[in-house]
Design goal:
The chain is of the alpha/beta class. The protein has helices at about 10-30, 35-40, 45-55, 120-135, 175-185, 195-205, 255-260, 265-270, 275-280, 305-320, 320-345, 355-360, 360-375, 390-410, and strands at about 30-35, 60-65, 75-80, 85-95, 95-105, 110-115, 145-150, 155, 160-165, 190, 215-220, 220-230, 230, 350-355, 380-385. A hairpin with a 4-residue loop joins strand 5 (about 95-105) and strand 6. Helix 4 (about 120-135) runs parallel beside helix 5 and helix 11 (about 320-345) packs across helix 13 (about 360-375).
Length: about 425
């Protein structure tokens, strides 16, 4: 029967397993010779040769040069065929959409930024952004295997409506997912933006090798991603990690939080409080440099409020003394107030600090925050700064799409 996987223990299953092992090695190491692939997989030279011939015939690997410069005769090198599959990722923010296309190796081959336009339907914005990235990659829509769209909040799996993201206009129609499915010529998945930042860190950054961690994020909103046993924990409605709604000491209770689209932790430690913390210490915010991307000079995905906070934190981190040190201490205290609750409940191995309004504080802020957590929480997880600094949400969307696509494309039993 077409598509039926081979029976366990059969030679065909072993071939499929060996094929995948070789493809994963090429993905990890880049071009390799037949001898090296045989050594790393434990296969004999004849079996490794048959494997490479099979993968080359399937269009999954290509011969690419030789390993000249080494003693002895040169050997043919083989690499993944980067054009064997392509995926797309979209990072949706109130400021606009950034779209990217990556080949099966993970290299970004096309990118497009679309600033938000009031009144333009979300479906039109999505299709325009994706079309721009596909065109920039020199591809057609039919070349994409999968698309992952990152948004604030989460689409409720029971109702299909976007929740926890009242600041994203035009994305709350009960028919939106059906409209997007009809308009997009590719299988599409949706995921919370902070969850995808955690995916990027787990695959490429500071959380590699860790099964239990929390990612704390602060940009346009304050949020967290929870990874337990190596898997994202999303919750019943997709709202796990919406820590901005946490009631916290230091701020009056916020009631009807869904309608207000805010909560105590957001009001206490969100990006909007940083100018006030600085002003109380006599620190002037100062003008912000314009960044390319959107008509108003701000980068798509970073509004002026985030840009102002980042500039303050960068100045404080560069000179962590006097009023700048007290500014970082105040910010560390309000961040720790909510983070301590997560640490007490989840007891994570590490906490990854991410989002522009945290990472801009650098090691001085991380050190102060770690000290505060040590006093407020019963356990003391290691705090690490996120390593995926260039568009971690978009990178996570691509990595999520690539993981599923590779499982399909690399499965030679199909």
């Amino acid at each position: 029967m077409p598509g039926t996987p081979p029976a366990p223990g059969t030679p065909s299953l072993l071939r499929v397993m060996n094929d995948r092992a070789a493809l994963d090695l090429l993905l990890e190491h880049g071009p390799l010779s037949r001898t090296t692939i045989g050594r790393l997989t434990g296969l004999s030279k004849p079996t490794a040769s048959q494997l490479l011939a099979r993968l080359e015939s399937a269009g999954l690997v290509v011969a690419t040069g030789t390993d000249q410069g080494r003693p002895g005769p040169s050997a043919q090198l083989y690499a993944l065929n980067a054009r064997a599959a392509h995926v797309g990722g979209l990072d949706v923010t109130p400021q606009g959409i950034t779209a990217a296309v990556a080949d099966v190796t993970g290299e970004v081959v096309g990118r497009f930024e679309l600033p938000s336009t009031a009144g333009t339907p979300a479906v039109d914005q999505v299709t325009e952004a994706l079309a721009g990235a596909v065109k920039a990659a020199g591809l057609h829509h039919g070349d994409l295997h999968r698309l992952v769209i990152a948004t604030p909040g989460a689409f409720d799996p029971q109702t299909g409506q976007l929740r926890y993201a009242g600041h994203l206009p035009g994305w709350h129609s009960p028919t939106l997912l059906d409209e997007l499915a009809a308009a997009l010529p590719v299988p599409v998945e949706y995921e919370n933006d902070v969850n995808l930042a955690a995916v990027a860190e787990q695959r490429l950054g500071a959380a590699r090798g860790h099964q239990d961690f929390v990612l704390l994020w602060n940009e346009d909103g304050l949020g967290a991603a929870l990874v337990l046993g190596g898997r994202l924990h999303r919750g019943w409605t997709g709202g796990a990690g919406e820590v901005g709604f946490l009631p916290v000491p230091g701020h009056p209770l916020v009631r009807q939080v869904a309608r207000a689209n805010t909560g105590g932790y957001q009001e206490l430690a969100g990006v909007q409080v940083l100018p006030r913390l600085a002003a109380e210490l006599g620190i002037e915010a100062g003008p912000e440099p314009a960044a390319p991307g959107a008509p108003d000079g701000t980068r798509v995905g970073h509004g002026p409020q985030v840009a102002a906070a980042v500039a303050l934190l960068e100045r404080a981190a560069a000179t962590p003394e006097g009023p700048y040190l007290r500014f970082l201490e105040s910010y560390a205290t309000v961040l720790a107030t909510g983070l301590a609750s997560l640490v007490a409940v989840l007891d994570p191995e590490i906490v990854v600090l991410s989002g522009a309004a945290i990472t801009a504080g650098g090691d001085p802020l991380r050190t102060l925050l770690e000290a505060e957590i040590g006093e407020l929480a019963p356990s003391r997880p290691r705090l690490v700064t996120g390593e995926v600094r260039e568009r971690p949400v978009l990178r996570g969307a691509l990595e999520s799409a690539l993981a599923a696509t590779r499982d399909e494309v690399f499965d030679t039993s199909r």
